[in-house]
Amino acid sequence: MVKYNGQTKVLVAIDCIIFGFDGNELKILLIQRSFSPEKFKWSLMGGFIQPNEDLDQAANHILKTLTGLEGVYLEQLYAFSNPNRDPFERIISVAYFALIDILKYETQISNNYHAQWFSLNQIPDLIFDHNQMVKLAKKQLRYKAALHPILFELLPGKFTIPQLQNLYEGIFETQIDKRNFSRKILSTKLLIKQPEKDKLNSKKGAFYYVLDMPKYIENFQAFLYFIPKQQASLQD
Amino acid sequence: MVKYNGQTKVLVAIDCIIFGFDGNELKILLIQRSFSPEKFKWSLMGGFIQPNEDLDQAANHILKTLTGLEGVYLEQLYAFSNPNRDPFERIISVAYFALIDILKYETQISNNYHAQWFSLNQIPDLIFDHNQMVKLAKKQLRYKAALHPILFELLPGKFTIPQLQNLYEGIFETQIDKRNFSRKILSTKLLIKQPEKDKLNSKKGAFYYVLDMPKYIENFQAFLYFIPKQQASLQD
DNA sequence: ACAAAAGTGTTAAGTCTACACCCATGA
DNA sequence: TCATGGGTGTAGACTTAACACTTTTGT
């Protein structure tokens, strides 16, 4: 019984676009390669798939290694497969994107690796096709965020509505009316108001909210239209 | 300069979920494998990536081989990577889904291969994880079709509004009010009314429409909400 | 003349958008 | 007391959903 003779095997890599939000700006985490080829150039965090893991496991594994994080929001994005994307060897890379709370994990990151957060509009030239991956990830993040309650993954467990609005405004590069925004967010019934306030960003203080987890999970794939239709720019 | 030593290479396959619409029902195209392993079992049309092609090219190539079709709507779906998905050897498979006009190509299909159209609810047990791939493709098709004008790819160049409605109703397994449906479709301005009628499906006859191609291309990634929100079941 | 599918208009309900003022507090 | 950001209500425009009758024509 001859099986798959004569077919070429290739290396399969995973690259992670890791998004974080620092309260003001959306950023992504890049590392400076410590090995050849392209040593010292900035790149996405990546690695190769191992014989006994699937891609999700490999991506989680890579994320754990770089950030120390587990249980992070992680989603397969796209397989990049241009035969010359890596000039040294044929590698197909499956890109994943991750959303993490930048503040929570600030300490664990970037010590063992030359890792650094970059604002989305200050991303350096990356190796291979990584700039293209970032572009697609950004587009996909907007796409999903316009429809699904995904951006909570970028915030701490307790957050305020003005913080949340900031995040949406940052990602969609637009201004949203705060009355309409809070009405829409609260109408989802996904948030539970806490008795305490965050007093860091204002004198009056803003009430904290936490996610209603069961409802959040239930509604995750429901359609929720967060961004005013005219402003939901999904181009590039 | 040592590069990627010691990493395991794997076989990378492509599997295509080919959707077609016969005017009544949504179907997918399956083939009976003529080679081992799993000879004679039904499966998706697939193949391996070649050294000089990327995945899109490989998928087009496979589609061409099976159906004789080129220029078909084709979209990368997901990379399936369970280490044991193929019990004989480790293979990562990137699934693609395709939309074709079943009638137009009926003749070209299925002669050289044991290919056959199956209604979506009569799909046999497929090899490996292909049933899972079909399930995901179906979900993705609904998802995209609820938002984007994608289903025209399943129809002939000239089609009637009742045909189109039939298609939407089939895919979403729901009934749509025809007055509201035609108003919504026509409000997109994507269709151009033809002088002739299709008289096959009714005595009165229904006017043909064709796509306004420039507008279609322009609006492809715009948000158009075709399905009444309550009915847009995107679960499974 | 009748059966079968095509085509069309209106009204009520709901949603979305734009907009402005008061509140609480720390400095 | 004042400057800063937080919080809330309403009215008009628009969109959606529900609904029924007339038209055409082949048999």
Query: How does the major sheet of chain A shape up?
Result: 7 strands, mixed
Give the CATH H-level superfamily of the largest domain in chain A: Nucleoside Triphosphate Pyrophosphohydrolase
CATH architectural grouping of the largest domain in chain A = Alpha-Beta Complex
Elements of chain A, N to C (H/E): EEEEHEEEHEHHEEH
Name the pair of protein chains with the most residues at their interface, and give those residue counts.
Answer: A-B, 40 and 41 residues
Mean pLDDT of chain A: 89
Structural class of chain A: alpha+beta
> How big is the Rg of chain A?
20 Å
> How many β strands of chain A by DSSP?
10
The CATH class of the largest domain in chain A is Alpha Beta
Name the beta content range of chain A: 25-35%
Into which percent range does the helicity of residues of chain A fall?
A: 25-40%
Shape descriptor of chain A reads elongated
Number of domains of chain A: 2
Distance between the termini of chain A: 49 Å
CATH topology of the largest domain in chain A: Nucleoside Triphosphate Pyrophosphohydrolase
- How many helices of chain A? The count is 5
